[in-house]
From TrEMBL:
This is Thiol-disulfide isomerase/thioredoxin. The keyword Zinc does not apply. GO terms for molecular function: isomerase activity; oxidoreductase activity. The keyword Signal applies. Keywords: Isomerase, Signal. The lineage of its organism: Bacteria, Pseudomonadati, Bacteroidota, Chitinophagia, Chitinophagales. Residues 30-172 form the Thioredoxin domain. CDD domains: TlpA_like_family. Residues 1-24 form the signal peptide.
Length: 464
């Protein structure tokens, strides 16, 4: 019997994946009506209607790939509704999701009740998703009234001005989604299978399950056509398309998002921030440069780690060591600094948010609704942190409670005045305070050093 080999890889490689039978292979445009995919439309009355895309023949269409759990998608619903109303008769906005009809129907009912906007969407989609592979949402496909696909764009391109030009047949100067163009034919079997999945993070999953690969460390350059993300398992780490700051944030957060998602808990000491950041977050500054930024070598990387079975090494320490080895110009550590923060704290004793309810737990988190019924306090604090992630001030939980809670809020989660009113009713409040917190310091070794209170320095310690 052949012995299983141990393969450890430390690679710097750019993988270009081939998405079969997709828009990427059609050139700059193709007539989608000739494919005429089947659709399941959940209308505003909650009825499931079988359609063909050709039912919309002769109309300008914007396909909006979305998901109920995607906050940017949900934020865009009023805008897309307004655009369709403004260009009534000239434009059809077609929402498309792979989620099931039951989930979308429940979401649509809540959205209609709270926001007053009716939703109809293609559900349980596979056909359009195969034609236009995407690893992130929202994603927009522009189809002219002759049935030709003209653009596949990011959200920032969908403006009233661009829609008007599109309807008039003018050429739009917009950043388009970049589809992978060539297959990685020379990759090992696991990597080839990963390429065919069309999702970067799944590459690590397939590697982790491969019968021949006992352990590995893989670092790649930006993987074209895929979004960023991460997944942590007991003996593996899968990170896709993250900046140097993002990679170190994951390494020091050790499975949490504590240092990830902005500069609230980051102190970047460098004269060349472009080398460390990916410029792919929210806001006009970042989206304006997204198309050209991500494909510049040295701006984003993917990392995949699998420990051998039974290996008790701290996988986050291994990740930090690998990052140090591949980015020798970086010095990363945790320090304590005074920062302005959003602090969640108690206002009454005993607080009314605590519960000993024995009924079934319910957790709903949308941009317009937060419903925590008999769920751990951590679910509430995570939701608040999630909706505050674009704020420059980090979120700090000072409630010191781990039991279950009841809290319900209907309204914009970014409206802090109304949110605080709801929190006050259950004995909580969210206020801005200046307090000492742990901060991830990422220092370019060529940068003039600043004095900081070092709590943990990676170069001198092992596992935390």
């Amino acid at each position: 019997m052949a012995q299983r080999s141990v393969l450890k890889l430390t690679l710097i490689a750019l993988f270009s994946f081939c998405l079969l039978k997709s828009y990427a292979q059609q050139g700059s445009s193709f007539n989608i009506m000739k494919r005429d995919p089947d659709l399941k439309l959940l209308n505003q009355g909650g009825e499931l209607v079988l359609q063909k895309l050709s039912d919309y023949k002769g109309k300008n269409i914007i396909i909006d790939f979305w998901a109920t759990w995607c906050s940017p998608c949900v934020f865009s619903i009023p805008k897309m509704d307004s655009l369709q109303e403004a260009f009534k008769g000239d434009l059809t906005v077609l929402l498309v999701t792979d989620e099931n009809a039951k989930a979308v129907g429940a979401f649509a009912a809540k959205y209609k009740r709270i926001k007053g906007i009716g939703i109809q969407s293609v559900v349980e989609d596979t056909a359009l998703g195969r034609l236009f592979p995407h690893s992130t949402v929202p994603q927009y496909v522009w189809i002219d009234k002759t049935g030709f696909v003209r653009y596949v764009s990011y959200p920032e391109a969908v403006t009233r001005s661009n829609v008007e030009k599109f309807i008039q047949g003018e050429t739009l100067d917009i950043a388009q989604y970049r589809f992978p163009k060539t297959a990685a034919d020379t990759l090992p079997p696991s990597l080839k299978r990963g390429a065919r999945t069309g999702v970067a993070t799944y590459l690590g999953d397939l590697l982790a399950k491969d019968s021949l690969l006992v352990s590995y460390h893989v670092l790649t350059d930006f993987i074209s056509g895929h979004g960023g993300g991460g997944r942590f398992e007991k003996e593996s780490i899968n990170l896709s398309n993250l900046s140097i700051c993002g990679l170190y944030a994951m390494a020091f957060g050790e499975g949490s998002l504590k240092y990830f998602g902005g500069f609230g808990r980051l102190n970047l000491l460098t004269n060349d921030s472009a080398r460390f950041t990916d410029n792919s977050g929210s806001g006009n500054w970042s989206t304006a440069y997204r198309d050209q930024w991500r494909t510049i070598p040295g701006h984003e990387y993917s990392y995949f780690l699998k420990l051998a079975k039974g290996d008790t090494s701290n996988k986050y320490r291994v990740l930090r060591e690998d990052l140090n080895a591949n980015f020798p110009f970086v010095h990363a550590y945790i320090a304590q600094e005074q920062r302005n923060c959003y602090v969640l704290e108690r206002t009454t004793e005993p607080p009314t948010f605590e519960t000993t309810d024995t009924s079934a737990p319910v957790f709903e988190r949308y941009s317009f609704l937060l419903n925590c019924h008999n769920v751990p306090m951590s679910r509430l604090t995570f939701a608040l942190k999630f909706f505050l992630q674009d704020k420059p001030e980090p979120f700090e939980d000072k409630v010191d409670y781990t039991g279950n809670v009841n809290f319900k809020y209907e309204g914009s989660l970014t409206d802090l005045v109304k949110l605080n009113e709801a929190l006050n009713k259950v004995g909580l409040r969210l206020t801005k305070q200046t307090i000492p917190i742990d901060v991830l310091v990422i220092e370019d070794k060529s940068y003039a050093k600043k004095e900081v209170s070092v709590l943990y320095e990676q170069s001198k310690s092992g596992a935390r």
